[in-house]
Write a structure and sequence with these properties.
Blueprint: E1 12-13, H1 22-28, E2 41-48, E3 52-60, H2 72-75, E4 78-80, E5 83-87, E6 93-96, H3 98-111, H4 119-132, E7 144-153, E8 165-175, E9 185-191, H5 208-223, E10 228-232, E11 240-243, E12 247-252, E13 256-260, H6 270-281, E14 285-289, H7 293-302, E15 305-312, E16 316-325, E17 328-331, H8 339-352, E18 363-365
Parallel strand pairs: 1-3, 9-10, 9-16, 13-14
Antiparallel strand pairs: 2-3, 2-8, 4-7, 5-6, 5-7, 6-18, 7-8, 10-11, 12-13, 12-15, 15-16, 16-17
Helix pairs in contact: 3-4
């Protein structure tokens, strides 16, 4: 694993020769979608063995000059984070638990044999970009500015070893609704032919390879009329793990809540962790353990399972209404969002958007 060095003391700001005109930006933000529209600027910082982190710049968003032999293109040394900036009622901007993203970024970096990024550099990078492109936060209910910090191996070589050069970058994308269907509850397909991660693998790291492995089963789910795919464990093909990019919660009729335990094959979601705290504040018993597909079906059929929801930065909290697989399908509750699901979504988004008290110090105001 590469060693780290002190963060750069200051960023160089490069002038943008042709930012998007105000009128054009306003029109674009009327319907931002998700992940297809981008703000004017980006952050870039270099790392090299023996030099550490240097060349920190805030400049115009644009293409990256990359050699065909760059290590990331051949050995997939790449990690990323997902987080959001929100506009609060008083006009200020804020982030939600950015320190947790900074810590998880380094957990991913270590698993992928990449250098640690000083947390203060991660946080300053995100802050600078949000402040520069705050006008790109859509003025729409439920909208935000989605932030994508990422790092990749940029050294030019063809050899199987950790790279000696990396780039850390942050880009921003105005975000509306994550699911195109806009349905109150999503339908998910159980993948019986593919798994997302195996014990000892990279399941707990937020690296691109995990998501690439989910694309075929995700496409299969969409072709069959479902919104998302859910993966079983790789060893027994029995235990529920997570969706292609979200964690799961199961709500039972006795008031208990279960979420799959973090066994090294599941990404430790920051939304997941926040919801566990909020659910316990509601007086509910939250357990982290194993839950089989067979038990899921039985509990939904008997009515013991009353709600199920998925969660993640992009989709926040989303009810799961229907589950299908090669051996049939079943409906959870009424097939729509349950009371607890809606309540937890309202509580979490209320804190994120400055509409509810933040008793945990999760919200980081930027201005």
């Amino acid at each position: 694993m590469a060693t780290t060095a002190a963060a750069p003391t200051e960023f160089i700001t490069l002038a943008h020769p042709a930012p998007v005109p105000d009128e054009t930006r306003v029109q674009l933000l009327e319907n931002p979608g998700f992940g297809t529209l981008f703000s004017d600027h980006m952050i870039m910082v270099d790392w090299a063995e023996g030099e550490g982190w240097h060349n920190a710049t805030l400049g115009p968003r644009g293409p990256i000059a990359l050699d065909p032999a760059a290590a990331v293109l051949h050995y997939a040394q790449e990690i990323f984070e997902g987080m959001k900036a929100y506009r609060h009622p008083d006009g200020s901007t804020a982030l939600f638990r950015p320190e947790a993203n900074a810590k998880r970024f380094n957990v991913s970096a270590r698993r992928m044999a990449m250098p640690d990024l000083p947390e203060e550099l991660f946080l300053e990078s995100v802050r600078l970009l949000v402040e520069k492109d705050a006008a790109w936060i859509p003025d729409l209910e439920g909208a935000s500015l989605y932030l994508r910090p990422f790092m990749f191996a940029s050294e030019v070589f063809l050899g199987v070893r950790p790279a000696k050069r990396y780039k850390f970058m942050v880009i921003a994308s105005p975000a509306g609704n994550y699911f195109k269907s806009g349905a109150p509850a999503v339908s998910i397909w159980v993948s019986s032919d593919y798994t997302r991660a195996a014990p000892g693998g990279t399941g707990a790291a937020k690296c691109g390879g995990n998501y690439a492995a989910s694309l075929v089963p995700q496409a299969e789910a969409i072709e069959r009329g479902h919104d998302q795919v859910v993966f079983l464990d790789a060893a027994e093909r029995k235990w529920i793990e997570e969706l292609g990019g979200m964690n799961l919660f199961f709500v039972f009729d006795d008031g208990t809540v279960l979420t799959p335990a973090l066994t090294g094959t599941i990404l430790p979601g920051i939304t997941r962790d926040s919801l566990i705290t909020l659910l316990r504040e509601e007086g509910l018993t939250v357990e982290e353990g194993r839950y089989s597909l067979e038990q899921w079906r039985e509990d939904a059929t008997t009515g013991r399972l009353v709600e199920c929801f998925a969660c993640g930065t992009a989709a926040v909290v989303t009810a799961v209404g229907r589950v299908a697989g090669h051996d049939g399908e079943f409906t959870i509750g009424s097939g729509g969002p349950g009371q607890l699901t809606q309540k937890m979504k309202n509580r979490l988004t209320g804190i994120q958007r400055g509409l509810e008290p933040d008793t945990h110090g999760w919200v980081a105001r930027l201005d």
